[in-house]
Amino acid sequence: MKGNHIGELEELILLTVGILQTEAYGVAVLKELSDQTGRSVNISAIHAVLNRLEEKGFLNSQMGGATNERGGRRKRVYTLSASGRSVVDEMKAMRDKLYSQLPPLSYNFSV
Questions:
Q1: Inside any domain, residue 106
Q2: pLDDT tens digit at each of 111 positions of the chain
Q3: What integer pLDDT is reported at residue 105 of this predicted model?
Q4: Runs of H (alpha helix) within the chain
Q5: Is residue 76 part of a domain?
Q6: Where residue 65 sits, what CATH number does that domain have?
Q7: Range(s) of the domain holding residue 83
Q8: Could you tell me if 50 and 78 are in contact, meaning their C-beta atoms sit under 8 angstroms apart?
Q9: Residue 81, helix vs strand vs coil
């Protein structure tokens, strides 16, 4: 494993792959990410991040079967690895810890 540091897009894609489970391939990740976050991301960026996360050991992939709707082409399907789930859990714990330390919002604004 190359390191546990991930960026925001990497974190979102890890979470999206986890949500999609056995249906996580490039276009499905792009659509789910867009539906869930409202973000517009280029498919090339999605593929680059999926490859990078697999290199880091956070994702596993395998080639799915050929389908008629894809013109007989196979698609690469990704799944969250144990270390991928671990890094997502660590990110959530860190964010929760930091969030819990925020002081309550005060509406008493001074001018």
A1: no
A2: 455 678 999 999 999 999 999 899 999 999 999 999 999 999 999 999 999 999 999 999 999 876 666 666 788 999 999 999 999 999 999 999 999 998 887 666 665
A3: 77
A4: 8-20, 26-37, 43-55, 82-100
A5: yes
A6: 1.10.10.10
A7: 8-100
A8: yes
A9: coil
User: What is the Cα 75 distance to its own chain's centre?
Assistant: 18
Buried residues in 49-63 as b, exposed as e (16+ CB within 10 A):
bbebbbebbbbebee
- The residue type of 92 is K
Domain count, the chain: 1
Q: How far apart are CA 72 and CA 49, in angstroms?
A: 25
CA distances from 24 to 2, 62, 97, 100, 108 (A): 23, 11, 30, 32, 47
Q: How many residues does the chain have?
A: 111
